[in-house]
TrEMBL record:
InterPro entries: G_HFLX_dom (IPR030394), GTP-bd (IPR006073), GTP-bd_M (IPR032305), GTPase_HflX (IPR016496), GTPase_HflX_N (IPR025121), GTPase_HflX_N_sf (IPR042108), P-loop_NTPase (IPR027417). GTP binds at residues 197-204, 256-259, 320-323. Pfam families: GTP-bdg_M, GTP-bdg_N, MMR_HSR1. PANTHER family: GTP-BINDING PROTEIN HFLX (PTHR10229), GTPASE HFLX (PTHR10229:SF8). Monomer. Associates with the 50S ribosomal subunit. Keywords: Cytoplasm, GTP-binding, Magnesium, Metal-binding, Nucleotide-binding. Its cofactor is Mg(2+). This is GTPase HflX. It comes from Halocatena marina. Belongs to the TRAFAC class OBG-HflX-like GTPase superfamily. HflX GTPase family. GTPase that associates with the 50S ribosomal subunit and may have a role during protein synthesis or ribosome biogenesis. Residues 191-368 form the Hflx-type G domain. One of its GO terms (molecular function) is metal ion binding. It is found in: Cytoplasm.
């Protein structure tokens, strides 16, 4: 992606226009920021900003020799068109969503991520193409010149819709392969833990801390250090990366996921549906929170993340970066809305990680079961299966019988019940 010399523009209805995040996004996309213009007023339907501000923007562009403008507002196609008429020629106009899509495009390493980005692009394009067609029709009507236009333009719309459908089908089959793999992992006694949270919270750094060496990604050939890369850059992780981890003696799979961000439109989130499947189907979601953020940001980011998660997932809040936090108590109080009290860690330094592992383990769904079986070769095979799939707490031989006590994921206990029933037939 070739970077532009950018002026950041942001309009808010009230309050003050914070630009830290849009600046970080612009930098993540490889742009150079050469100026900034903010305005507090209600939206102007023609330019989004007020007329005076648009004029000031043009002057600023000339003065700084900027080559692009990034709006931290969504521009309607009509507004983008109108602004284009006023600012100097050749200036690229980028709105918040276009910017996020550009970053996604750059970061998409896996086939799944690429499909998801393409899907998001098409969803972004569709209403814009429709609006363009509407405008062109208006112009044509004014000139009273009719013919061919409607049909030709309609094809652009159907073409986009068809491509959306095709990609959704492809993602659907990746999704069902994922579901099958999850079932296999469950059958093998592995619990599924997902790391979710705002972009840059430290999810990938934590995954590296927790992971055993073994990788269990569906795309084995991809470079894991790439996909689970950590960097002080927004949206570093796009696909999902799953690693095996042993937490306090219990075998689990930990999945790192794409970060959340404020103001993501529904169509964009939906494009990443299959990635979020790992979060929806997890036994436990560790919600990683950057505790070093100012309290207002922290609240807003937690709220944003919470809204992206289904209501019925079990959430363990994890306050990260405590190595650079003075007042941990205040951070703790900021996440008191969750059922489980937060864990406090530094993923970089490793502090609190052992305690986090114990907390994860305690929060995983678990069942206890006891079987009394006749002493036979079959039963011994059952015992050895139990050792492989569950936490065997006791095995007592009493001449004729063997009693086995185990604790494991509910799906394993279910399987154990079935196997034991076969044996007692
Ligand atoms: N001081 C401090 N920095 C941390 C800690 N954990 C992560 N970081 C830094 O925070 C930045 C983001 O870390 P990542 O692990 O890439 O964050 P992420 O949540 O995976 O981000 P995305 O993939 O963009 O969603 C990096 O610069 C990390 O070094 C921590 O415990 N303490
Ligand atoms: Mg990451």
């Amino acid at each position: 992606m070739s970077g532009y010399r950018i002026i950041i523009v942001k309009r808010v209805n009230a309050g003050s226009a914070e630009t830290a995040e849009i600046r970080a996004l612009a930098e993540a996309a490889g742009h150079e920021i050469v100026g900034e213009l903010t305005q507090v007023r209600s939206e102007d339907s023609t330019y989004n900003l007020g007329q005076g501000a648009i004029k000031r923007l043009s002057e600023r562009i000339e003065a700084t020799a900027a080559s692009g403008v990034i709006f931290d507002n969504e521009l309607s196609p009509q507004q983008a068109h109108n602004i284009g008429e006023i600012v100097p020629d050749g200036i690229r106009l980028i709105d918040r969503y276009r910017l996020i899509l550009d970053i996604f495009e750059e970061q998409a390493g896996t086939r799944e991520a690429q499909l998801q980005v393409q899907l998001a692009e098409l969803h972004y394009e569709l209403p814009r193409v429709q609006e363009e067609i509407r405008l062109e029709k208006e112009v044509a009507n004014e000139r009273r010149s009719r013919g061919g236009l409607g049909e030709k333009e309609n094809r652009r719309v159907t073409d986009i819709k068809e491509r959306i459908q095709r990609i959704e089908e492809q993602l659907g089959s990746i999704d069902s392969a994922d579901t099958k793999r999850r079932e296999q992992h469950r059958d093998a006694g592995l619990s599924l833990v997902a790391l979710a949270g705002y972009t840059n919270a430290g999810k990938s750094t934590l995954l590296r801390r927790l992971a055993d060496d073994l990788a269990v990604d569906r795309e084995q050939h991809t470079d894991l250090t790439e996909t689970a890369g950590t960097e002080d850059r927004l949206f570093k992780t796009l696909g999902t990366t799953t690693r095996r981890a042993t937490l306090d003696g219990r075998a689990v799979l930990v999945t790192d996921t794409i970060g959340f961000i404020r103001d993501l439109p529904g169509w964009l989130v939906q494009s990443f549906e299959s990635t979020l499947g790992a979060v929806r189907h997890a036994d436990l979601v560790c919600l990683v929170i950057d505790a070093s953020d100012p309290l207002d940001d922290l609240h807003e980011k937690v709220e944003t993340s919470r809204n992206h998660l289904a209501d019925d997932v079990r959430i363990l809040p994890v306050l990260n970066k405590v190595d650079v936090v003075d007042d941990r108590q205040t951070a703790r109080e900021a996440v008191s809305q969750f059922e489980l009290p937060p864990a406090a860690i530094s993923a970089v330094e490793g502090t609190g990680v052992d305690d986090l592992c114990a907390r994860i383990r305690d929060a995983l769904p678990e069942q206890r079961a006891r079987f009394v079986l006749s002493n036979s070769g079959e039963t011994m095979r059952f015992v050895s299966w139990a050792y492989d799939h569950a936490d065997v707490r006791a095995v007592d031989h009493d001449g004729e019988t063997v009693s086995i006590e185990l604790v494991g994921h509910p799906s394993i206990v279910r399987q154990a019940n079935m196997r034991a029933k076969e044996l007692t037939r």
